[in-house]
UniProtKB/TrEMBL annotation:
The keyword Zinc appears for this protein: yes
Entry-linked PANTHER family: ENDORIBONUCLEASE YBEY, CHLOROPLASTIC (PTHR46986)
Family from the record: Belongs to the endoribonuclease YbeY family.
Cofactor: Zn(2+)
Gene Ontology MF, one: endonuclease activity
Source organism superkingdom: Eukaryota
Family matches, as PROSITE patterns: COF_1, COF_2, UPF0054
The protein's name in its UniProt record: Haloacid dehalogenase-like hydrolase family protein
Pfam families: Hydrolase_3 (PF08282), YbeY (PF02130)
Keywords: Endonuclease, Hydrolase, Metal-binding, Nuclease, Zinc
Coiled coil: none
Length: 594
């Protein structure tokens, strides 16, 4: 397993510290927490005729040189749809570090040079076989590239290259680190060190201080976003490994004194060296500078709003922030046509693929939820809902746990049921009763049919006798269906008063009023399921829109309300997302779940 690099520990520099001499300032850099460092065996390769020792490691060790931040470079970035060269970063100093004490070594032959290369994976980058295989390849590839680049310095005719590093033969050891990370991590570095609030593909941080005359050449660090690299690899038609190799070459040349940002001539010289190294190494692809210009010539200029969502395959580069997502259906996962959009379905599948567990929490019956989700290939054994999976249904009145076993069932008072039936018959207002996997009604009506045809609930069975209706089965809730105006001006005011403390009224849709047992809420149902599963509310994200989602959003560590949601629901949410007709669930997953 590859080791993880502990995040940078920040230290504020005092005014006196900022006035220190240049040499003493170079003693300040980030500290690595030893708890997160795991040494791995070092491998030494000897190549004739100069006995070049190559020591490469896939882990950080306490002796591994950390970022010193003397120079900070980045390749051109795509901002607003147009490629541009970033402004020169200049010199940046930050964070405190003392150099490690050098161990006394036995005298070495002049010709012997040890290349110490550390390949690191940032700790928040999830385990991914392709990334780990690439790290293994870099352990072998980077020393080869370093040796070739050093050989090129001997007879270099470049006019613009800074010559702080001229003859590596004067050193005993050359140290270099390469870190693989995601866009979020490199964006923070880019903002902190270069003042640019967007991700980039590669950053180079020089650590070489000529004035110190050390026996070790600490070249510095190359930080690569594998997320951006993956997008660029797809655009340029080669593999992720090819793109990362190109980024390594680009970053290494910056550390050797090349800087395409200072002038056109400097850009041309660095471009030539990139192409030469890639060709000599037999690596695929054009140099980064040339590739960027190719895209600039062919891409159509367009402006895009900044977007912090992690889209599509980009989720593979992030660890989930939560263990579970609890998601409502009507008005949330389903659009205004009661359908699951392709984008929402894809996002749910990707989330589960990346280790998140998705649980449906809905006012629907379990058969109704399964019927809709089956259309999007989300039901069944490998889906997010089935007869053997956890779920919260019928406003939290039916809760199923592991293997789909019933955890809780809440029933409506029989006297209240009888009164609702009599009211329905007297006023001709259709009523539907939910009894586990069945729906019951007193008479046929187009609105009753719509519950089946539009909302995919089980087709209601007609039982015309009130006594038989009540005796038929335990009833969890009843729904009155009418116009929006009829519900708000007549039905809701009447039943809010008539039920007293025997029942509660809940409204998930503007043209429906639900009568449920007192204290009923999805939040309570979710809480019971979490207790059953042994999961903390801090581990869940919840997405909803209706007033019946309020307690669930309040319970969750992160609650997302749809922009089409009720005002009371939006008021308690941590954030208001886009609407259910704009793939609101997908947006929430890509933006907040990872």
């Amino acid at each position: 397993m590859l080791s993880r690099l502990y995040p940078i520990l920040r230290h504020n520099l005092s005014t006196e510290a900022r006035e220190m001499t240049r040499a003493s300032l170079y003693h300040h850099a980030r500290l690595l927490h030893p708890q997160f460092l795991r040494p791995s065996p070092r491998i030494t390769l000897v190549t004739a005729p100069n006995r070049l020792n190559v020591t490469s490691s896939l882990s950080s060790s306490p002796n591994f040189p950390s970022t010193l931040h003397r120079r900070f470079h980045a390749l051109r970035n795509l901002v607003g749809g147009e490629w541009k060269l970033p402004k020169p970063a200049g010199r940046v100093f930050a964070e405190r570090r003392e150099y490690r004490k050098m161990r006394k070594r036995a005298p070495k032959r002049k010709q012997e040079l040890e290349l110490s290369v550390s390949i690191c994976i940032e700790e928040n980058l999830p385990d991914d076989n392709e990334i780990q295989n690439i790290a293994e390849m870099l352990r072998l590839n980077v020393p080869m590239a370093m040796k070739l680049a050093f050989n090129g310095l001997k007879d270099s005719k470049y006019k613009t290259r800074e010559t702080d590093i001229e003859d590596v033969g004067g050193f005993e050891t050359v140290e270099l680190s390469v870190m693989l990370c995601n866009d979020e991590f490199i964006c923070k570095l880019n903002k902190e060190w270069r003042g640019e609030d967007h991700p980039t593909d590669v950053l180079s941080m020089s650590q070489h201080v000529p004035e110190l005359k050390l026996p070790v050449l600490m070249m510095g660090d190359i930080v690569i976003s594998v997320e951006t690299a993956a997008r660029q690899a797809a655009e340029r038609g080669h593999s992720l490994l090819d793109e990362i190799r190109i980024l390594v070459i680009h970053g290494m040349l910056h550390l050797l004194g090349f800087d395409h940002e200072i002038s056109d001539e400097a850009e041309k010289e660095m471009e030539e060296e990139e192409e030469l190294l890639l060709k000599s190494l037999g690596w695929k692809g054009k140099g980064l500078i040339q590739s960027a210009y190719d895209i600039e010539k062919t891409a159509k200029p367009h402006l895009e709003k900044a977007d912090d969502r992690k889209k599509g395959d980009g989720l593979r580069f992030y660890r989930p922030k939560f263990s579970y997502i609890f998601c409502d259906m009507d008005g949330t996962l389903l659009n205004s046509k009661s359908q699951i959009s392709e984008a929402n379905a894809k996002a749910l599948k990707e989330a589960t693929l990346r280790g998140l567990k998705v649980v449906i929490a809905t006012g629907k019956s379990r058969p109704g939820a399964m019927k809709i989700l089956k259309m999007a290939d989300l039901a069944g054994r490998d889906g997010i809902v089935s007869e053997s999976s956890p779920g919260v249904f019928v406003q939290g009145l039916l809760v199923y746990g592991r293997q789909g076993k019933e955890v809780y069932r809440g029933n409506l008072d029989r006297d209240v049921c009888r009164e609702t039936c009599l009211y329905s018959l007297e006023h001709g207002i259709p009523l539907i009763a939910f009894s586990q996997d069945r729906c019951l009604t007193l008479f046929d009506h187009p609105l009753v049919d719509s519950l089946h045809t539009t909302y995919n609930e089980p087709k209601a069975e007609i039982i015309s006798s009130v006594d038989q209706f009540i005796a038929e089965a335990d009833i969890q809730k009843v729904i009155f269906m009418d116009t929006t105006e009829g519900v708000s001006s007549v039905i809701r005011p009447y039943w809010s008063e008539a039920t007293g403390d025997r029942a509660s009224v809940v409204q998930a849709q503007s043209d429906m009023l639900e009568i449920v047992p007192p204290g009923t809420s999805k939040g309570n149902g979710v809480k019971m399921l979490l207790n059953h599963l042994g999961v903390s509310p801090n581990e869940i994200m919840a997405i909803g829109d209706g007033e019946n989602d309020i307690e669930m959003l309040e319970l969750a560590s992160w609650g997302v309300a749809m922009s089409n949601g009720a005002e009371k629901t939006k008021a308690v949410a941590d954030v208001i997302g886009v609407s259910n007709d704009e793939d609101g669930v997908a947006d929430a997953i890509y933006r907040y779940a990872f």
